[in-house]
Design a protein that fits this description.
The chain is mainly α. The protein has 3 domains: 40 residues, no CATH class; 94 residues, no CATH class; 61 residues, no CATH class. The protein has 11 helices and 6 strands. The strands form 3 sheets. Strands 1-4 form a two-stranded parallel ribbon. The protein is globular, with a radius of gyration of 21 Å.
């Protein structure tokens, strides 16, 4: 164990919780976030940091390909396909683990519209609505819908395979004790229940076991 390269993070509802880990005479550094397999995990256990980072990385990737994506040598239809092929995967990396709230959804939609406006050479000072931009492209926003589909497909994949038994236990389990004071935070499963219109977790799990019905449910998402 390399003590100089080892850090630790505490996930707790009490942000001021004090802790200290010592290895011999060395005290390990406590961090509030760290990068794991390309995704950022935080002690608040929210998706804000990871989503913002993915958007900025995708923005940089877009700018590197600006001559191709914004050039008029290629048709708009082909440039849209290149955008979907090279930029969207950068944004959507690890999105199956995200918990979306309204503020984050707006940021994702805003980035998508940012790419479209540049591809259409619409100045930021021009008073062109998002609806008009989408009408010119003859399409709808697709990033948020792709996140919904990937999350729901991932849930079905987990519940139908025995090798994910530990994840199944975690999702189906309940924590003993009373819920703390204050508004309940939006959970990963609550996201899916809202998107599918399924009220109870048990009903969602039962439906996920039927691959064909769950596939149709995913395809019908708005």
């Amino acid at each position: 164990m390399n003590v100089s390269k080892t850090k630790y993070m505490v996930v707790s509802k009490k942000p001021q919780l004090l802790s200290q880990i010592q290895i011999g005479h060395n005290t390990l550094e406590r961090v509030d976030k760290y990068k794991y397999l390309g995704s950022w995990l935080t002690d608040a256990w929210k998706s804000d940091t990871d989503i913002r980072v993915r958007i900025e990385i995708a923005r940089q990737s877009f700018m590197k390909m600006k001559k191709v994506l914004c050039g008029r040598q290629l048709s708009l239809k082909l440039r849209i396909r290149l955008l979907q092929c090279y930029i969207w995967p950068v944004v959507l990396y690890g999105c199956e683990a995200w918990t979306l709230v309204e503020d984050l959804r707006k940021k994702i939609d805003a980035f998508e519209m940012w790419t479209y406006r540049r591809m259409l050479h619409i100045s930021w000072t021009a008073k062109v609505s998002n609806a008009e931009v989408l009408a010119r492209l003859q399409k709808k926003t697709e990033l948020v819908k792709a996140i919904k589909q990937r999350k729901i497909s991932y849930l079905g994949h987990i519940l139908r395979h025995d090798r994910y038994r530990l994840l199944q236990i975690i999702m189906m389990g309940k924590i003993a004790g009373k819920r703390g004071v204050g508004r309940r935070k939006k959970s990963w499963l609550r996201n899916i229940r809202e998107w599918t219109g399924i009220k109870t977790v048990g009903e969602l799990f039962r439906l996920a076991m039927d691959k064909e019905k769950f596939k149709k449910l995913t395809a019908d998402l708005q």
